[in-house]
Fold this protein.
Amino acid sequence: MLQNPLRRIIRAIAVTAGVAAYSLLGLAGYLEHTMAETFYVNPGEELVFANQKMVVSQPQQGYERIAAANESHAAGWTVDLKLFGVIPIKSAHVSRVETQLVTPGGTPFGIKLFTKGVLVIDVSSIETASGSVCPAEAANIKKGDIIESVAGKAITSNEEIGEIIAQSGGNPVNIRYIRGGQTLQTKLTPVASKSDGIYRGGIWVRDSSAGIGTITYYDQASGNFAGLGHGICDTDTGEIMPLSNGDVCPVKINSVKRGEIGSPGELRGSFTSNTPIGSLALNNEAGIYGSLEEAPNQLDPVPIKLKQEVCTGPATILCTLSSGKLEEYDILIEKVDLNPRTMTKNMMIRVTDEELLAQTGGIVQGMSGSPILQDGKLVGAVTHVFVNSPTKGYGIFIENMLNYSNKLGKAS
C-alpha cells in the first residue's frame, strides 16, 4: 500500500529535477546568446557581474602566468563564464583598462552638421517633351545613398550637384556613391525638363542638419566630448548622416513640451550665438563626438562604471530644462542588457522624480545624451523614449561611448 505513494513522490521529485535542469540549460543557452564576449576590468580587479550574480567568471588554465606577464592595460586573458560556476555558458576575453575620470554633462548644445557628400532623400520623375522619366531610378540611385562625386568632382552641397547636372547638356555623368558601406559607381543621363528646359536628374538630396542635444561627458585631459548617445539621422531616410565637419554652438532651452502617451515631448530651444564653442568629428550609432573649447559645467570629474558593474536599482540623470539650471533627477534602472548586438539600448530606465515628471512627463526629445549616474559613477546616457510610455526609455553604456571618443586623440 505504501509503494504507490512512494513511487509518486519519487516520480514527482524526478520530474521537478528534470524541469529544473531543463530550465537551467535553457537559461544558460539564453545567456550564451545575450552575454558579451569582451569585457574590461580595472587594474587589480576580477570580472564580476553586479546584475547577474548567477554568472561566475572562471579564468582558464594558465591565467596566473598570463596575468603576471602582462601588466599593461592592453593585456588580456580568457575566462569561462558558467552558470552558478557549473554549467558552461561561453568564453569571454577580459582586458585591463585604467580607471577613467570624465566630467558629467547634462547641459544642452547646438549642433550644425555638414555631410560628407550628399544624402539622397528621394528620387522623382521629370516631365519631358517625350513623357515622364526618372534618370536617378534608371541609374539605380536610391533613397539613402550617399553621393560622393559627380562627373569626377567631389560633392559637398545640393547646389553643386544641381549645377553639374544642369550643365551636362544631357550627356551621361559618372556618379560615385555609397550604399550599405560599399562604394559603387553608375552613369546618370540627365533629361531636359518640359517646363523650363533645364537638365535634371530627379535626385533630392540633403547636405546639412541642425538641432539640439545634451552633452554626456567631457574629458578634461583631451578636450573631447560626447553627446546624444545615438547618431544624428536624416528625418526622411532614417540613415545616420555622414559627417564631414560640424560646429558646436551655445543654445538656450526656452520651453518644454510635455510628453504624453503616443506623443513624445520635446525640449524647445534656440541658438544664442553662431560663434562655435567646439567642433564635431564623428557621428555614429553611439552618439556625436568632438571637442569643446572649455568644460560645459563646473562639476568635478567622476569615475565610470564598466558595463558588468551596472545594476538594476536607483540612479539619477543630469539635464537642463527651461530654468537654465543643471539639475539631478531620480530614475530607476529596471533592466540591464549585456547583449553585444545592442549598441544603444543597454539599459531600460524609468523616471521616478516627481519634479521631472511634472515638468516633462518623463523623457522627451532633446534629453538624449543626459548622463546617467549610479553610486557616484557615470554609467551611461539616455538615448530613447517609449512613445507609448514616456516615463520609460533606454540608455547606452558609457563604455560604448568611450570606445569612440578615446580614439579621437587630443583636441588641438
In short: The first strand starts at residue 38 and ends at 41. The helical segments are 3-34, 63-69, 135-138, 158-166, 354-360, 398-405. The chain has three domains: 3-96, 125-201, 212-405.
